[in-house]
């Protein structure tokens, strides 16, 4: 495995850690503000955070990519809100975990649409990770309204897979900061049309305002930059499998902060997800064809 791929894996793991912590903090804020409002705050705060930075770096010029950035921004809006709807109904650990069927969708896309080689080691790791998802969600015990949460989780998984694939494609042509900035600018525009700022609740507690700022910067801006940077160094399939560590972090933080207890079988599922990510990092990354070469 070359140094660039190792750096990409490290960045993907760091992004998963930040997102895992953010999921628990966002869930705590749901007592006073809706998931759609939290998703809106994520987009707006991230845009405000990155625009000056992108300008300073000379990386704000879209260079003809506005349509793709609009698609990417729409994708981000869908990923964020469906993720929050899932964790609102299922709890942070299960809700975050079900989203991580995405690596299977990405690997299928790589094989069927892009004709790229995926080794048996990577397929095994991905299947182990998905089995871990099944255990940590305790899917066999879901019933009634819980299946609505599962549906949102599945939609989020498809959107997350699309985000990984599109992020890898854009990463061949644009710097990470350009992709993330424009993506969230378009996501923010979408949310401000759907939910105008003057309708935003202002009677929130100081704690919730602090949580929203955290979710916007530490839980969105930085990890998305890490993730897109990872996609410039490693394939979307690899980054997707590494991302399955996020629900393990999320479940651990939710247990500490929100008293959302994990059963023994959920611990087993979390361990399987971590083992799959470790296997990819140790043995699998070199066996997956890297990011497609930039178009000439």
Q: Could you provide a short overview of the structure?
A:
The chain has 296 residues and is an all-alpha fold.
How is the topology of this model organized?
Layout: H1 3-29, H2 35-56, H3 66-90, H4 92-98, H5 102-112, H6 120-137, H7 146-171, H8 176-194, H9 206-231, H10 236-242, H11 246-258, H12 264-284
Helix pairs in contact: 1-9, 1-10, 1-11, 2-3, 2-8, 2-9, 3-4, 3-7, 3-8, 4-6, 4-7, 4-11, 5-7, 5-10, 6-12, 7-10, 8-9
Describe this entry's structure for a reader.
- The protein has 296 residues and is mostly helical.
- It has one domain (3-287).
- It is built from twelve helices and no strands.
- The longest helix has 27 residues, at 3-29.
- The model is unreliable at 289-296 (pLDDT under 50).
What distinguishing features does this structure have?
single chain; 296 residues; mainly alpha; 12 helices; disordered C terminus
**Would you identify the regions where 5 or more consecutive residues have pLDDT less than 50?**
289-296
Q: Ends: how far apart?
A: 26 Å
Number of strands: 0
Shape, please?
A: globular
Q: What is the residue-mean pLDDT, rounded to a whole number?
A: 80
Number of domains: 1
Category by helix and strand content: mainly alpha
Estimate the helix proportion, in percent: over 70%
Radius of gyration: 18 Å
How much strand content do the residues show? Answer: under 5%
Number of DSSP helical runs: 12
SSE ordering: HHHHHHHHHHHH
Main sheet: strands, sense, barrel: none
